Amino acid sequence: MRYALLLFAASIAIVPPFPAQAQESGVKPDLAKAQQIVNTVCAACHGADGNSPTPVNPSLAGQHAEYITRQLMHFKSGIRSNAVMAGMVANLTPEDMKSLGVFFAAQKPKGLAAKDRTLVSAGQKLYRGGSAASALPACAACHSPNGAGIPARYPRLSGQHADYTFAQLQAFKTGARGMDKDGKDVNGRVMAQIAARMSERDMRAIAEYTSGLH
Q1: Phi, psi (5° rounding) for residue 6?
Q2: Residue 154: strand, helix, or coil
Q3: pLDDT above 60 (res 135)
Q4: Phi then psi dihedrals of residue 46, to 5 deg
Q5: What is the pLDDT of residues 4-63, one digit of tens each?
Q6: Among candidate residues 191, 187, 170, the one with its CA nearest the CA of residue 67
Q7: Across the chain, how many H-helices and E-strands are there?
Q8: DSSP 38
């Protein structure tokens, strides 16, 4: 079983990175325009500095620029389905989305504190070591031991609202996220496979644990 976990972890390590053309468009990010967009479009849900005041909405401060840009592109193209976000990105250009990624990545996360010690303990074990019983790989393999993630590949999880992380894990398990019909959300498909191996308690435990990482 240990060997199976290693093979699974190796398979997700070779997921191709964010396309080069999306990372480097040759256009310098317009941070002044990004600030305007944040003030008029993003701040109500995600906070003016990217630290979301509401647990159901993700904090974007300190998140990898490439990841934010990619998600905005997915919302606009329909790869990721969300009626609210589809409306928010409708008028954004590729350059706007790149600028927003850079803007939020530069903001400082305020950090959160985990609340449930029992869940934190269970989440720490799963995050660091996975579960041989369910062939669940360690989250740290892709999202790093401190939850910082890997730029251009895997998102930062540290300090994210537990409610939001839990909701996304549920979405991956049900196929509401990561199972686009054209198979373009490569990392999303990987997460759908991983979430399928998780119980609701596993999801809550990991969400609680990562919320307190710094």
Answers
A1: -65, -40
A2: strand
A3: yes
A4: -110, 0
A5: 444 455 455 545 554 444 445 577 999 999 999 999 999 999 999 999 999 999 999 999
A6: 187
A7: 12, 0
A8: I
Which residue's structure tokens are 């003030």? 39
Of all residues in the chain, the percent with pLDDT exceeding 70 is: 88
Q: What does pLDDT average to over the chain?
A: 91
Query: Quick check: helix, strand or coil at residue 136?
Result: strand
Spatial CB neighbours of 51, under 8 Å, sequence gap ≥ 6: 59, 61, 107, 109, 110
* DSSP 8-state code for residue 108: P
**Do residues 27 and 84 touch, judged by C-beta distance below 8 A?**
no
**Nearest 5°: phi and psi at 160?**
-80, 150
> Which 8-state DSSP code applies to residue 111?
-
Cβ 68 vs Cβ 106: under 8 Å: no
DSSP reduced 3-state for 96: helix
Which tens digits make up the pLDDT trace of 182-208?
889 999 999 999 999 999 999 999 999
DSSP letter (8 states) at residue 44: H
pTM: 0.89
Say if CB 181 and CB 171 are below 8 A apart.
no
Amino acid letter at 191? M
